[in-house]
Design goal:
InterPro entries: AAA_dom, DNA_Partitioning_ATPase, P-loop_NTPase. This is ParA family protein. It comes from Microbacterium capsulatum. The chain is an alpha/beta fold. The chain has a single domain, classed as P-loop containing nucleotide triphosphate hydrolases (Rossmann fold), CATH 3.40.50. 41% of the residues lie in helices and 17% in strands. The chain is built from twelve helices and eight strands. Strands 3-4-2-5-1-6-7-8 form an eight-stranded mixed β-sheet, sandwiched between helices. A hairpin with a 6-residue loop joins strand 3 and strand 4. Helix 6 crosses helix 7. The longest helix has 22 residues. The protein is globular. The two termini are 26 Å apart. Bound molecules: adenosine-5'-diphosphate and magnesium ion. Adenosine-5'-diphosphate (ADP) binds next to helix 1, strand 7 and helix 10.
Length: 272
């Protein structure tokens, strides 16, 4: 059986890729659920106005619900808007609502506009010890994504094993360097996860090889296969971990979670 511990400082992941439809949200909720199953206390912050992560975690996010919008724009404490997810007693979600769509513009005139999430999260963590925070970002580099980068300790990039997979990646790396320089020197690109992998196609294999060549340390050994069960789960308000725990997608996301958890442990043991 896997033996993982969560005794280090809180790890805050931002799931980033400026492309839409590459598996950001799917990765955020399934890695979160799998880590919770392993015993970690996990908070997912839904920063995408579409609210797909909130849906997949079975958390209410209609327009009358208090959401991360009220935290970023209205100064509500994060603790006030966080909801438990029915997925697991270890799993919590700060939902997004459609109001968040206006936040990109409303934030422009706010004081400390790049640090709002970081400040709110630090206040929350001081009272609610949490092992892992996972921030699901919209597919753009606006103030919401910049808030996520500023609050995070690690970046996780999901890469879809398809044409143009690497397109936009150098821009993303440039953005990360810019954030490191000006807003968050501690931010690390720690993890790359290959998603929607179809082993039957040569193309998917070529993309995987190319990404591994460029990022030998960051790419997880685990690859997430393309699987209908993964895409069905959200319509039941569930992750695939709960929806069909024996399916190939659930097994793969569990393995990815074990790798992610294990990497922090190795670093701690090295004394980093
Ligand atoms: P993003 O958040 O980057 O826009 P999503 O996670 O929403 O991407 O994924 C885009 C679409 O692909 C969704 O319909 C999702 O259900 C589907 N999808 C994601 N991962 C898989 C997978 N491993 N197998 C099959 N479908 C997937
Ligand atoms: Mg998404």
């Amino acid at each position: 059986h896997v033996n993982v511990r969560f005794d280090g400082p809180t790890r805050v992941f931002t799931i980033s890729n400026q492309k839409g439809g590459v598996g950001k949200t799917t990765t955020a909720v399934n890695v979160a659920s799998a880590l919770a199953e392993l015993g970690a206390k996990v908070l997912v912050i839904d920063l995408d106005p579409q609210g797909n992560a909130s849906t997949a975690l079975g958390v209410a996010h209609t327009s009358d619900v208090q959401s991360i919008y009220d935290v970023l724009v209205g100064d509500a404490p994060l603790a006030e808007i966080v909801q438990p997810s029915p997925e697991s007693s270890n799993l919590f979600c700060a939902p997004s609502t459609i109001h968040l769509a206006g936040a990109e513009i409303e934030l422009v005139s706010q004081v400390a506009r790049e640090h709002r999430l970081r400040t709110a999260l630090n206040d929350y963590l001081a009272v609610h010890p949490t092992d892992v925070v996972i921030i699901d970002c919209p597919p753009s580099l606006g103030l919401l994504t910049i808030n996520a980068f500023t609050a995070a300790t690690e970046v996780l990039i999901p890469i879809q094993c398809e044409y143009y997979a690497l397109e936009g990646l150098s821009q993303l790396l440039g953005n990360i360097r810019m954030i490191q320089k000006h807003l968050n020197p501690e931010l690390q690109l720690s993890t790359i996860l290959l998603t929607m992998f179809d082993g039957r196609t040569r193309l998917a294999q070529q993309v995987a090889e190319e990404v591994r060549e460029h990022f030998p340390h960051e790419v997880l050994d685990t690859v997430i296969p393309r699987s209908v069960r993964v895409s069905e789960a959200p319509s039941f308000g569930q992750t695939v971990i709960t929806y069909d725990g024996q399916s190939v997608g659930a097994v793969a996301y569990r393995e990815a979670a074990v790798e992610i958890a294990g990497r922090a442990m190795t670093d701690n043991e090295k004394g980093h």
